[in-house]
Amino acid sequence: MSFPLASLLPGGGDDARASAKGDKSDITGSLTLQPAAAGNASEDMTTVDWSLATAALREALNRKEDAASIPWQNPTTGARGTVTPIASAYVQDGFACRNFLASHVRNGRETWFEGTACRVHRGDWDVRSTRPLRKS
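Request: output the structure for the sequence above.
Response:
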């Protein structure tokens, strides 16, 4: 399953988030059920975090060497992470695409995402999809 980038941002994709949370009226004992991935909203990746991570991803994708991890950091929030292209480029819908991994660390909490970026108009890389990675 993949999610549009906006669905991972605070305030973006509220419909998808609401359907993933289910009905909050479900009660077990005296505790309201919460989604497994629920976290502190202040630790979520912000729009600025995504912008910084995407800029680092574009740099990594433009490098010739494989698995070139590029760090990013938001000095305002203290959030940081890395982006790493994985696997070789492939063609999808007529565009060169690559899969990538991205990390996000804030307040001691680390989350990971995997996604796909494609080289589209004027050769710019565009993030097509992302999804959170969950520990198994």
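The CA atoms of residues 95 and 120 lie 6 Å apart.
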